Amino acid sequence: MNSLAYILAADDFNWVHIVALLLFVGITAISSFFQKWAEKKKQQEAAKPKTAKLPTVVGRAQPPAPPQQPQKAVRVAQELKLRQQRQAQLEADRQKRLSARKPPEADTKAIEARLVDAKLSSKETSIQKIDRPGVIIELQNRSAAKKAMILHEIFASPKALRKDDEM
Predict the structure, then answer these.
(1) For residue 89, is it within any domain?
(2) Which listed residue, 6, 16, 39, 144, has the most CB atoms within 10 A of its CB?
(3) What pTM did the predictor assign?
(4) pLDDT for 98-133, tens place per residue?
(5) How many distinct structural domains can be found in the chain?
(6) CA dihedral 9, 10, 13, 18 (to 10 degrees)
(7) What residues make up the domain containing 35?
């Protein structure tokens, strides 16, 4: 590197010298790369196990390979048969599920449990009903009362903003 610096610092440097120097450095780098690559290749070949080639008999033809088409056709037929069996099994399972399923309209007890029978209290007069913001409802079963309480908490004003008579 010092020689390159001296060449550049000298007043009489020549571009031809610099190009020649760079060309020489590039060629040496390329040649060292190829030498290392050749050594690696030789080491890999030496590491491979050597196999002996069997002599081939000249003039003797090898027997033809058996045709693969019949085996392939048999395998395709077997796969098709298995696919049809799976589809038939899936259809049978589907039919069984559909026959076991009861439509929701058929279960009258479940429908009645979901309905809420609300009766207005007969104690209040119509004027009192108009004056009060809510209507007193008498519920028939516990589940309906629970649902009504939940709906009241959802739709009512927040507890912090309620008046004493709304609690």
Answers:
(1) no
(2) 144
(3) 0.25
(4) 888 776 666 777 777 766 655 555 555 555 545 555
(5) 2
(6) -40
(7) 2-41
